[in-house]
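Quick one, tokens below:
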């Protein structure tokens, strides 16, 4: 009987350790529009989950597993997933639709006196295939070193889109689980880079600025633990890392409670 108990206990431990593994949880305080919220980010191997506040103050979330990014909307109770292959297929489908567009066929029933005006308006709305749009780097400059939010930090100024944002960056080794989080962010950053490259090939694509924090982390070679954004000299938002802890993380934490849609079905 004693041996049976030991066997059952061993099986239980094997089963639980196969589902719960050592991961990292980051807690981030965000202040915006006179409201303060704490969001969580969870990392396990190549899995990443980030909470996002929506308009009803409910938490949606984004997950990434190294190949696929999913957004979960708890208001609409829906999930949308996107792989790099999906983005390529969507871009090919959009290009196909534009190539098949017949301007003259659309204008044949428009009175001659108005045809040229309508043609010009349609060309503005549905531009022709052009050369690849340039993906520009953000205006980012290091402006000093200081201790901030209890971390030894490099201070940066990011300019763009009418905003000035100050960033405080520390080495990944200064936060608990920094290596694990760094690997997940590098993978997600590469995904965003490839997505920008593909979408820059679409008809009418304009020069776009690569200003997301994921890509900027690669430029500053560290973790952005604090930020303050200003518009016309007024503070409009700020964030800071409250804590980073290692804990057991279950893969079920990254699953959506809703079935995910095929992005191509929405074209």
């Amino acid at each position: 009987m004693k041996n049976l108990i030991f066997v059952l206990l061993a099986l239980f431990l094997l089963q639980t350790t196969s589902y719960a593994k050592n991961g990292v949880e980051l807690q981030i305080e965000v202040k915006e529009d006179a409201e303060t919220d704490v969001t969580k980010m969870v990392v396990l191997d190549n899995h990443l989950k980030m909470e996002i506040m929506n308009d009803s103050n409910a938490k949606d979330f984004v997950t990434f597993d190294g190949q696929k990014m999913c957004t979960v909307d708890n208001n609409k109770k829906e999930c949308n997933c996107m792989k790099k292959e999906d983005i390529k297929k969507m871009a090919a489908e959009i290009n196909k639709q534009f190539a098949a567009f017949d301007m003259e066929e659309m204008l044949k029933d428009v009175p001659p006196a108005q045809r040229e005006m309508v043609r010009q308006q349609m060309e503005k709305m549905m531009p022709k295939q052009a050369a690849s749009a340039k993906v520009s780097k953000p205006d980012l400059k290091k402006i000093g070193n200081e201790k901030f939010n209890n971390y030894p930090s490099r201070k940066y100024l990011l300019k763009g889109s009418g905003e000035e944002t100050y960033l405080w960056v520390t080495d990944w080794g200064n936060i608990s689980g920094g290596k694990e989080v760094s690997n997940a962010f590098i993978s997600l950053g590469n995904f965003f880079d490839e997505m920008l490259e593909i979408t820059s090939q679409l008809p009418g694509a304009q020069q776009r600025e690569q200003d997301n924090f994921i890509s900027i982390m690669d430029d500053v070679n560290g973790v952005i633990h604090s930020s303050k954004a200003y518009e016309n000299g007024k503070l409009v938002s700020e964030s800071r890392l409250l804590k980073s802890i290692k804990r057991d993380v279950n893969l079920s934490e990254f699953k959506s409670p809703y079935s995910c849609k095929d992005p191509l079905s929405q074209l």
